[in-house]
Design a protein that fits this description.
By secondary structure, the chain is of the alpha/beta class. The protein contains 13 helices and 15 strands. The strands form three sheets. Strands 4-10-9-8-7-5-6 form a seven-stranded mixed beta sheet, sandwiched between helices. The protein has a four-stranded mixed beta sheet with strand order 1-2-3-13. Strands 11-12-15-14 form a four-stranded antiparallel beta sheet, covered by helices on one side. The protein starts with a helix and ends in an 8-residue tail after the last helix.
Length: 464
């Protein structure tokens, strides 16, 4: 019996896979990856694949970066774990908090940070902290979280309730109360049946109208990804977030920016909110690129005065009643410090901007195909939206068949990318990927689209 068959049998018998149907392996063998280096990964049979999705949006500096491996190893020799509860700490967590908070515009006062195991924990933390902030001021009715349709914020119950991709809500009712959805700036398939810029950002107007209907005195925070990620990689119009910031200021609402996917260079800026000057987050949710996936790590960053208000108003007999066992983990924080150093020293933010523009140019050329309705992105973050008809923008049937098939065809040719639930194929390579590898990656997609069309459009591959 081969290593592959042994592992595959054990996998199918024992391992539960996230976002995978329990019967998936009746028709598909597990994809077992045993090695990763840079932008390449290798399976049990020795076949190499271009990792065009950075694992799960997260390998900003690529797989197995030697500086991060060294930092993790050295820290594990010194201190592998100690709690940060009850006032305890460790040098890496202190140093990462100081480094991270130094990376933002000083006028934003984002001076406090604590570290989680990932994005879901971070968003759960920020939702609780936003409610906590208002409650200690005697305003506990100010508890609702406004988020957008197509958004993704995590897998906890609160973060699932905040998520606007509704299949995540199926079969787990009742969800927590206090979560309100508004329109997303999804201009290609506008749910308000309008066109930008003639719409004058009707989605922003709808958001404010919803806030007024709910009562601003009941809204704790507006939570948003700067670029919607799992919902189809949807960058907003240039004037969207400045207008959202104005509404939050006008109605005394905290702005939580979920930069779990977009942080640490992914969009061609260190943080995506830097693309739209002056939109000042009150809280930031970070993960993925903070450690490039080498160790699970996320970060909640908040305004110093939010933390101070809690400190001043909270009963001294009661601590800040929130925490996870592995918060401020010393090994994870050591990985985060090394990872940020790599991003800065190797100039990866600039590379992401320059090579990201090239990636988008190459992908845009794929609109020659009947099935490619839209191509969009920022930096090393992009998506192809697939349609049955470019005029109506209707998807191919059955639902998600087109992106799922395209991803499988690319995998067979040695490329890993990901489908989303919004009829899109998402591409998010490591920031280190060079143009030659971008060319190889796009060429695989280019060769796979005709095969997908042949099967799903019931005719020969056609070019517009």
């Amino acid at each position: 019996m081969t290593l592959k068959s042994t592992l595959a049998d054990m996998d199918k018998a024992h391992l539960i896979h996230p976002l995978t149907h329990p019967r998936h392996f009746e028709h598909h063998p597990p994809r077992i990856i045993v090695e990763g280096q840079g932008v390449m990964v290798r399976d049990t049979e020795g076949k190499e694949y271009i990792d065009g999705f950075s694992g799960l949006w997260c390998m900003a500096v690529g797989h197995s970066h030697p500086k991060i491996l060294e930092a993790v190893g050295e820290q594990m020799k010194k201190l592998s774990y100690f709690t940060s509860f009850h006032g305890s700490s460790s040098p890496p967590s202190i140093e990462l908090a100081a480094k991270l908070t130094s990376m933002f515009d000083p006028s934003y006062n984002l001076t406090r940070a604590w570290f989680t195991c990932g994005g879901s924990e971070t968003n759960e933390t920020n939702i609780k902290l936003a409610r906590f902030y208002w409650a200690v001021q005697g305003r506990s009715e100010k508890c609702k979280i406004v988020s957008r349709r197509y958004s993704y914020h995590g897998m906890g119950l609160a973060t699932t309730a905040a998520t606007g991709i509704f299949p995540f809500h199926f079969n787990i009712d009742p969800l927590p109360e206090g979560f309100v959805k508004v329109a997303a700036p999804y201009c290609y398939q506008c749910e308000l049946d309008l066109s930008y810029p003639g719409c004058d950002l009707a989605c922003v107007k709808e958001a404010e109208e919803t806030i007024l209907e709910e009562g601003p005195e009941t809204i704790a925070a507006f939570m948003a990804e700067p670029v919607i990620g799992s919902g189809g990689v949807i960058p907003p119009p240039e004037d969207y977030f400045p207008r959202i910031r104005e509404i939050c200021d006008k109605h005394d609402i905290l702005l939580i920016l979920d930069e779990v996917i977009t942080g640490f260079g992914r969009t061609g800026r260190m943080f995506a909110h830097e693309h739209w000057g002056g939109i000042r987050p009150d809280m930031l949710s970070l993960a993925k690129g903070i450690s490039s996936g080498h160790i699970p790590l996320g970060a909640s960053v908040v305004r110093g005065d939010i933390y101070d208000t809690i400190g001043e108003r909270q009963d001294e007999r009661l601590p800040l009643m929130h925490g996870f066992t592995y918060m401020n983990h010393p090994v994870a924080c050591a990985a985060g410090l090394a990872n940020i150093e790599v991003i800065e020293q190797e100039g990866l933010v600039r590379k992401a901007a320059e090579n990201g523009a090239y990636l988008l140019e190459r992908l845009t050329a794929l609109k020659k195909y009947d099935s490619v309705g839209d191509v969009r992105g920022m930096g090393m973050l992009a998506a192809i939206e697939l349609v049955a008809d470019k005029e109506t923008k209707m998807p191919m049937q059955p639902e998600n068949a087109a992106p799922d098939l395209l991803v499988d065809l690319c995998w067979d040719k040695g490329l890993f990318i990901r489908s989303s639930t919004m009829e899109t194929v998402c591409i998010a390579p490591a920031l280190i990927m060079d143009r030659a590898t971008i060319d190889r990656m796009v060429d695989v997609i280019d060769r796979s689209i005709p095969e997908m069309e042949e099967r799903l459009l019931k005719g020969p591959a056609r070019q517009a």
